[in-house]
Amino acid sequence: MLTTLAVENYRSLRDLVLPLSRLTVVTGANGSGKSSLYKALRLLADAARDGAVAALAREGGLPSALWAGPETVGRGPVQGTRRTKPVGLRLGFSGDEFGYALDLGMPVPTQTAFHRDPEFKRECVWRGPVLRPAALLADRDGPVVRGREPSGAWGRESHRIGLTDSMLTAFADPRVSPEVLLVRERIRSWRFYDHFRTDADAPARQARVGTRSPVLDHDGADLAAALQTIQEVGDPAELAAAVDDAFPGSRIGVAAGEDGRFALRFHQHGLLRPLSAAELSDGTLRYLLWVAALLSPRPPELLVLNEPETSLHPDLLPPLAALIAAAAARTQVVVVTHALPLVRALEAVGDDTALLELEKEHGATVLAGQDLLDRPSWHWPKR
E-assigned strands of 196-301? Predict the structure, then answer.
């Protein structure tokens, strides 16, 4: 389980170190930095797939993603100052077993058309919750990576990788760095869900050929197949309870046609026939999508939900909170929300729930009520 998340110089997240729990609820006013925190987690996940550089390119490149304020935040008016420290975007996490951090910076000017591609300046994987020289397992400085041998000594050979490649992919060889491979695979299992579509042309409303789907697609296109998979290899009683809790007297079914297409059927008390996915309201369909996502028979290492309350009637928030709390018993969950009723419902049902409220201070995102002594212990690798 992750216990600490650290972000530096990413949009409004100038210097943020957050404690994480089994169920972490991130809330705050509009513009407080919730979306930036969600994107920072996704960027960390992209690094394990060698997609961090491309992800930053979609945001306009590293200069667009960097903290736009002064190097030092004070209480007076913002002054234009010259930077004295290397420009960099740093992301990292740690837990009881392993920690990982990356430092992305501007490239050294060369004769190339790709002059906006950020470079990995430092990357580290270590054992335990805090970065210490003795705990380092793999250390990357520019293009050079070295790994620690099982004996505890550093390997005699150093390895060179591309400056735009993460060592999580370019150095993850089980013969040389089994811990790096393990960290990479754990990050790759992280799962993100953000704003399911429920419009008339939404993928979840369409019948499609069904295959066993222990993990719901990010767009919900395989909703019927995912629900049928829960029925067959998951917990059908929990599925039935989640539907009945939100819609008393209702149940769901899945019709499989001769052409192999799966179609959702929603049986509601008082109706003479079941409703198809195309007939469901936006809120009902969205709730069923969350049911399929949260009751996955293959839980990830980390499940991150961005504003799951969107389009849901307030009466559906307590059942949703119960679903999220049940999922947190199987996997670590981070929920990003601005809906106070959902926050209160999650606090009521979660046994190990941490509430993190973000706010702005001189343009930078901070954790409300956190002093320097309250921050988890965290050390960035130095360039």
Answer: 208-209, 251-256, 261-267, 275-276
Quote the CA–CA distance of 310 and 289 in Å, as a whole number.
12
Cα–Cα distances (Å) from 371 to 16, 37, 368, in that order, read 11, 19, 9
Contact in structure between 359 and 366 (CB atoms under 8 Å): yes
Per-residue pLDDT, 161: 94
Contact between 348 and 317 under an 8 Å Cβ cutoff? The reply is no
Residue type, 249: G
- DSSP-derived letter for residue 219 is T
- In the three-class reduction of DSSP (H, G, I as helix; E, B as strand; rest coil), residue 27 is classed as strand
**Residues 6+ positions from 100 with CB-CB distance below 8 Å:** 44, 92, 93, 94, 123, 124, 125, 126, 168, 183, 187
Sites in the chain below the pLDDT cut of 50 = 78, 80-81
How much helix, strand and coil, in percent to the nearest 5, is found in the chain?
A: 30, 30, 45
**pLDDT at position 75, please?**
56
Distance between CA 355 and CA 343 in Å, rounded? 8
- How far is the C-alpha of 340 from the C-alpha of 30, rounded, in Å? 13
**88-95: strand order across its sheet:** 13-19, 2-10, 88-95, 98-105, 119-127, 136-141, 144-147, 159-160
Q: What is the pLDDT of residue 107?
A: 84
CA dist., res. 91 & res. 104, Å (int):
9
pLDDT tens readout for residues 30-56 = 999 999 999 999 999 999 998 998 899
